[in-house]
Amino acid sequence: MVTSSPFRHGWRNLWIALLIPGFHLPAAEVDAGEPEPLFNDAHFHLLDYVQRGIAAREYFDMVGDRVGRVAMFGIPLQQKWDYFVSGERAPHYYLHSDAALYYYSFVDAVIAREYLSLSDAQKRRVDPMITGFNPTDMYAADHIRRVLLTFPGVFSGIGEFSIHKEFVSSKVTGHTASLRNPALDRILSTVAEIGLVAILHCDVARVRPGERPAHYDDLLGVLAAHPDASVIWAHTGLGRFVHPTDQHLVLLDEMLSDSRYDHVMLDISWDEVARYAVRDANTVDGWAALMEKHPTRFLFGTDSVAPRNWDAYVTTHKVYHPLWERLDADVRAQVERLNYGRVFDAAVPRVRAWEQRQLSGQ
Ligand SMILES: [Zn+2]
């Protein structure tokens, strides 16, 4: 499916490297004999809604060298198996039961342990993320700091965490998460201070669309208030039932063209989102044109949840095939691989330095 030559950018980058001090050749291009990975995955759930999944080592057995790097996380919410609701039927997805979801903080210890079980070469390909906090709790930022200092040298960011999400928000025990909650401001201030990457799920609208997407303006307000926080807006705000309106790409273009949101990236993960983009030749053209106008702002991710095998894992990438074919090769490389490196490579040294300062009492 991917037929690009490993030399695709080799000569051009070699010239850039010679001309620009500090420009680093991507590792895959230093050794032109190594094939490039198909993609970096900016959105991968090792575990599902009942904290079951695959081991990080099994992930690498599955992908081999077909994937370069991966942002790896669990899911912050646990689907309760409430016997009084479903009896012997054990739900493992939030749509399987009317029982509540609750925040499951132990997920961060599980992800840290999985990361620490990897070889050094594998660790260099993983960006583990903290998810086990309640984004309505003013203490959520304390949890993030505590996890970083309990497992120094491990985490690169936080998320995917959800504020507004179809059918999920209303199932979570306790206070409903909201863009207007100051607890979210504390979280994003912490992200900016430490240098973390935040993967934020926030539907752009409610399932029943209104004139203007219900959450879009509030989201822009929150993002504009935290210009130093590196934020990835998951799925460009779309969901299984939150379909793109005619205005969706126009709104994204407005945001991407506005310098107040230069710190915001969009991930195009989830096969449901991919199906919107490739619905017909017009939608493919529309998404491709937006990416070509803003080539540094999009990240591919699978949004695969605890996949059983490669075919299950790679579904989203396959669904996007018409888009990959349509995109200019340079833009495609940015979306599939290069933007990932830029975002996470900017974050990780800052996070490690913050941990060092904290742990050495400076
Ligand atoms: Zn996800």
List the helices and strands and how they pair.
Elements: H1 10-19, H2 27-30, E1 39-45, H3 56-63, E2 67-73, E3 77-79, H4 83-86, E4 101-103, H5 107-116, H6 120-123, E5 126-130, H7 140-150, E6 157-162, H8 182-194, E7 197-201, H9 216-224, E8 230-233, H10 248-256, E9 264-267, H11 271-277, H12 281-293, E10 298-299, E11 304-305, H13 310-313, H14 315-319, H15 321-326, H16 329-359
Parallel strand pairs: 1-2, 1-11, 2-5, 5-6, 6-7, 7-8, 8-9, 9-10
Antiparallel strand pairs: 3-4
Bound molecules: zinc ion.
Zinc ion is lined by residues 43, 45, 160, 303.
Question: What features would you describe in this structure?
Answer:
The protein has 362 residues and is α/β, with parallel strands linked by helices. Helix content is 41%, strand content 13%. It has one domain (39-359): Metal-dependent hydrolases (TIM Barrel). The chain has helices at residues 10-19, 27-30, 56-63, 83-86, 107-116, 120-123, 140-150, 182-194, 216-224, 248-256, 271-277, 281-293, 310-313, 315-319, 321-326, 329-359, and strands spanning 39-45, 67-73, 77-79, 101-103, 126-130, 157-162, 197-201, 230-233, 264-267, 298-299, 304-305. The strands form two sheets. The protein has a nine-stranded parallel beta sheet, sandwiched between helices. Strands 3-4 form a two-stranded antiparallel sheet. The termini are far apart. Bound molecules: zinc ion.
